[in-house]
Specification:
single chain, about 80 residues, mainly alpha, globular
Length: about 80
């Protein structure tokens, strides 16, 4: 017996198939967010749920900060 189950679409996924963490990495990588507070605010504005919980781990915050720093370095030429 085969059941064709459709994935449940949460508010965070409507209009996009990206989850909160994937979107956080995209925003950090592209430089659209330049700090953790700005990143959280963007995700909340986009309708993602439980943003604070998703970004609460120290490793994920460190990875996101590194990506934001790298994006900032790429966007602004060396000022040394």
């Amino acid at each position: 017996m085969r059941h064709d189950l459709q994935p449940v679409q949460t508010t965070a996924m409507r209009g996009s198939e990206q989850g909160t963490i994937e979107r956080a990495f995209e925003l950090a990588r592209t430089g659209q967010a330049r700090s953790m507070p700005a990143l959280r605010a963007l995700l909340i504005r986009e309708g993602h749920l439980d943003v604070q919980h998703h970004l609460s781990g120290s490793l994920i915050r460190r990875q996101l900060r590194i990506l934001m720093d790298q994006a900032r370095d790429v966007r602004s030429p060396a000022e040394a």
